[in-house]
Amino acid sequence: MKIAVCIKRVPDMEARFKIGADGASVDEAGLKFDMSDFDGYAVEVALQLNEKSGGGETTVISLGPDVVQETLRKAMSMGADRAVHLKADKIPFDSFAIARALAAELKVGAYDLILFGRMAVDSANQSTGPMVAELLGLPVVTAASKLDIANGTGTARRELEGAAEIVTFPLPAVVTIDEGIARPRLPSLKGIMGAKKKPLESKPAQLGEPRIAVKSMELPPERTGGRIVGEGAAAVPELVRLLQTEAKVL
Amino acid sequence: MPNVFAFAEARGGQLRKVALEAVTAARTLADAAGGEVHALLVGAPGIGEKAEQLGAYGADVVIVIEHAGFGNYNAEAAAAAAAERIKSGGYRAALFSASAQGRDLAPRVAAKLGVPMAADVTSFEPSGDLIVARHPGYTGKVIFTVTLAASPAVISLRPGAVAAAEHRKAARVETAQPVGDPSAARVIVTEMVQGSSAKLDLGEAPVIVAGGRGLRAAENFKLVEDLASAFGNAAVGATRAVTDDGWRPHSDQIGQTGRLVSPDLYVAVGISGAIQHLAGMRTSKTIVAINKDKEAPIFKIADYGIVGDVFEIVPALTEAVREAKKHH
Ligand SMILES: Cc1cc2nc3c(=O)[nH]c(=O)nc-3n(C[C@H](O)[C@H](O)[C@H](O)COP(=O)(O)OP(=O)(O)OC[C@H]3O[C@@H](n4cnc5c(N)ncnc54)[C@H](O)[C@@H]3O)c2cc1C
Ligand SMILES: Nc1ncnc2c1ncn2[C@@H]1O[C@H](COP(=O)(O)O)[C@@H](O)[C@H]1O
Predict the structure, then answer these.
(1) Which of A161, A178, A242 is the best mutation test for B, with the most CBs of B within 10 A?
(2) pLDDT range class, residue B202, cuts 50, 70, 90
(3) Do the beta carbons of residue B117 and residue B79 sit within 8 Å?
(4) Strands B10-11 vs B130-137: parallel, antiparallel or unpaired
(5) What is the pTM of this model?
(6) How close is the Cα of B52 to the center of ligand 2, in Å?
(7) How would you classify the pairing of strands B286-291 and B304-307?
(8) Helices A95-107 and B100-113, axial angle in degrees (round to 10)
């Protein structure tokens, strides 16, 4: 199968974030970057599908400044065959602007399957995949926690609140990948060496004018007033008293 | 245009609580502009009976589309119906829930309308011609404030962020036809798998008792379940460590990559408090933590902590909660 995976470069979420001087961005100094977690699962799913079928080609696509080429190389060191870099000064917050630029590139690729992460862990919009599908007129399954492809038909599982649904769909299609589906492999040394020679094409992203703007960014207020009520079962009566009289939840 | 559109989410012939939240939020926005709330309700034949309930939460008009092809969630047909109505109605804003269904539906509708959207919004208000919305990102560590210039402003609301509030209206009911044939959708739900013990959904329960790896084995979740049933109005949640090990289904997972919850009371049992877990529950109103390690990060965000062994403390707490409930 010809599979495309859209991957976003995001900061490592373990960091303590600081708001940048403009008040509307995260200060990137000292942060480590990698592909968004769900996009890593999506790359792994693509590689496994093509390994199972014993052929095919996996293309990874990323929109952003030149540094996203590092993320694309990482995906190729895992096993993706080729990469497309859609060049932009910065990655906009507006998922629809990103979706349009990705759709313009994906349209010409004749892919059987286009994979996205369920969400990018920084912007957390969870929108880009289904928007691209609409723009391309393709069927889409979001937040798949299982995915199988056989004879041009896909089967996926989606987790809902307190339930799950099993869906079937025809290819070509768009699927966004939830976690629990596959653990991304670590690039081997051979993979890392090989990735340097794989094709990476860079071209300008067709980004329109974003119509959703980040006005400001803040760190959430710290929860304060936390206290240890006591140790062991002896502390239970005091906890219950506080839940009744202070928190009024019991 | 002062009117506001709300998508009323239903499953299995019942309205979901998030439908009432969307209508409540739409009411607030419409009142600010002197407009009406129009709610769209799609479902299998019979769903129209739920229109009155939407009126009770502030809908002026309920547009009902009944079709056998809407028995299960039918994303393609629902998106087509919503987009068509929004286009013809000229709305200021279109509200969805950021539930599993709404997260799937809203971006499709926005793309059909050719407008951007603000997703998983915790609060919003009009500001002149713009809508200003807040949205948590970076696993809950950063809050974005965004401005939406497009019309309509498509917004999905984080479940639980707006409390559903009654606002009685005798809603006018309009029946409408689906756009195209809903039975001809390309993506078809072939099976619904009901959740394990989930009597109360995590997103709707006022109390959540969640267990972590500190419970040591799947069978010890009985302690968590017993405490939940002592509260009576509680659902059971879990950390990823627990769902990864298969002690609980993935649908019970709370956190960055699981459910985002904000109950009145969250009891964390044997949970360390990794940031990815906190991202899903830090907005709970009251947090209780039970952990044997007094340095565990969960204690930094817990209102009340008890240091010690869950196997000793949880049964005692279950007993005490049962007693307290008796005297109520
Ligand atoms: C991309 C990504 C996404 C993630 N998403 C999520 C997510 O959505 N949700 C999530 O929960 N995690 C998520 N995680 C995993 C997260 O980082 C933690 O690994 C996980 O939350 C830890 O679960 P835990 O608290 O149950 O286990 P642990 O961290 O192992 O903590 C167990 C705790 O139990 C205590 N304990 C042990 N025995 C006892 C006892 N007898 N009595 C009392 N206390 C005891 C210990 O002191 C310890 O604090 C994610 C990780 C990544 C990388
Ligand atoms: N700049 C980008 N380049 C490539 N893919 C992206 C980009 N931004 C988002 N995506 C894809 O869209 C998914 C969802 O992103 P979001 O809608 O922002 O949560 C991500 O998991 C990626 O698969």
Answers:
(1) A161
(2) confident
(3) no
(4) unpaired
(5) 0.89
(6) 40
(7) parallel
(8) 70
The ligand placed nearest to the CA atom of residue A99 is 2
Helix (H, G, I), strand (E, B) or coil at B49: helix
Cβ within 8 Å of residue B58, ≥6 positions away:
B23, B24, B26, B27, B30, B37, B165, B167, B169
User: Which position has the token pair 């050719």?
Assistant: B114
Q: Is the pLDDT of residue B197 over 60?
A: no
Candidates A182, A185, A58; CA nearest to A113 is A58
Mean pLDDT over residues B47-53, rounded? 96
CB-CB under 8 Å, A123 with B137:
yes
Burial class (CB in 10 A: 0-12, 13-18, 19+), B327: exposed
- Which residues' Cβ are closer than 6 Å to ligand 2? A 6-8, 36, 38-39, 61-64, 91, 95, 98, 116-117, 119-120, 123-129
Cα atoms found within 13 Å of the Cα of residue A1, Cβ hemisphere only: 27
Beta strand pairing call for A153-160 and A140-150: antiparallel
Give ipTM to 2 decimals: 0.90
DSSP B13: T
Give me the helix-helix angle, B310-326 and A236-245, nearest 10°.
40
Q: Do A232 and B309 touch (CB under 8 A)?
A: yes
The candidate with the shortest Cα–Cα distance to B132, out of B115, B111, B146, is B146
CA of B318 to the centre of ligand 2 (A): 44
> Residue B280 in contact with residue B224, Cβ under 8 Å?
no
Cross-strand partners of B228:
none
How far apart CA B303 and CA A228 sit, in angstroms, is 8
- Cα angle B276, B160, B76 (rounded to 5 degrees) comes to 90
Give the 3-state secondary structure of A51-111: HHHCCCEEEEEEEECCCHHHHHHHHHHHCCCEEEEEECCCCCCCHHHHHHHHHHHHHCCCC
pLDDT reading at B157 higher than 90 = yes
Which residue in B75, B188, B307 is closest to A231 by CB distance?
B307
